[in-house]
Amino acid sequence: MQKEVTAFAPASVTNVGCGFDVLGFALDDPGDEVVVRLNGHKGLAIKNITGDNGMISREIEKNTAGRAASSFVNEIGFKEGIEIEIHKKMGLGTGLGSSAASAVAAVVALDALLETKFDKRTLMKFALEGEKLTCGGRMHADNVAACLYGGFIIARSVDELDIINIDYPDDLYCTILYPHIVMDTSDMRRILKKDISLADGVRQWGNIAAMVAGLMKKDYKLISRSLKDYIIEPVRSALIPGFNEIKNAALDNGALGCSISGSGPSIFALSRSGNNAEKIAGAMQNAANKLGVENEAFISGINKAGPRIISKNF
Ligand code: HSE
């Protein structure tokens, strides 16, 4: 049997309301799986993709996991054949960082297969090469960082690859409501205003700073007061059917805060305890169902560990 490794990398919620492109956290579930296998040929090839309904390119340089893998092997000058299988476990264009999860799973699997023992910062550099394919302009590192580092992160700078893990309350849970529409990240970035007023800036960075403090101090009221987005949510939420009703249902049922996950359309709510998260999921689904918005809801804890190796054959 040829040497092979399978890795899992988690979905992520980014922006977290106020922190466009800088705040994010990883979910326990779902996540993508990538298998990398030595095949005795030359170069990289994508052998199989499941769970994408044929929507994702099988060409190495046009696929996020493929591009991340090629940047990895080029860096170390590895020329032997490696085949890649990608198993997508979440919808595409959901706002849950699926492309980042595949790119991270690919580089984590390669690191184990080739026993390179790269640090996270180096793996991040490779994964970001893949993520570039989805950005449509200025690079953002929040999904890759949350997925690769696990827990709650601040992506302070993409240029400097400065990622900071911050502490957060252990009983923090996330409810996700995924309305069944697809939103393309690059389109969702293109519609944003290019300039903001100083007044909006001040309100927004006040919230980011307070949210980080609230998480680290485990101050739920402060988290709740700061999970507000005056800049991005008003623009994008207009494209998510039932957004205001679904958000209000979450807040009326005890959510600490609620906003768009990444570039949408998924809507996330934070709460204290799994029971609260379940109740909020029911309320968000009721609101969506009443409006005839097809949806699914799930809850997850925050994933502290980030990606993991599922199996290794060698
Ligand atoms: N921060 C990015 C955005 C995440 O909101 O566009 C994309 O999933």
**Bound compounds:** L-homoserine
Counting copies of identical and different chains, the oligomeric state is: single chain
Q: What is the rounded Rg?
A: 19 Å
Helix content: 25-40%
Distance between the termini: 8 Å
Counting helices, strands and paired strands, the structural category is: alpha+beta
Proper CATH architecture of the largest domain: 2-Layer Sandwich
**How many discrete structural domains?**
2
Average pLDDT number: 95
- The low-pLDDT segments are none
SSE ordering: EEEHEHHHEEEHHHHHEEHEE
Short description:
With 314 residues, this protein is an alpha+beta fold.
Describe, in plain words, how this protein is organized in 3D.
- The protein folds into two domains: 4-167, 2-Layer Sandwich (Ribosomal Protein S5, domain 2), CATH 3.30.230.10; 173-301, GHMP kinase, C-terminal domain (Alpha-Beta Plaits), CATH 3.30.70.
- Helix content is 37%, strand content 28%.
- The protein has helices spanning 64-76, 98-113, 120-135, 142-149, 185-190, 198-217, 220-226, 233-236, 243-252, 274-290, and strands at 4-14, 23-42, 44-50, 80-87, 152-157, 162-166, 172-179, 257-260, 267-272, 295-301, 308-313.
- Strands 1, 2, 3, 4, 5, 6 and 11 form a seven-stranded mixed beta sheet that branches.
- The chain binds L-homoserine.
- Residues 14-15, 20-21, 95, 97, 140, 142-143, 185, 188-189, 262-263 line the site of L-homoserine.
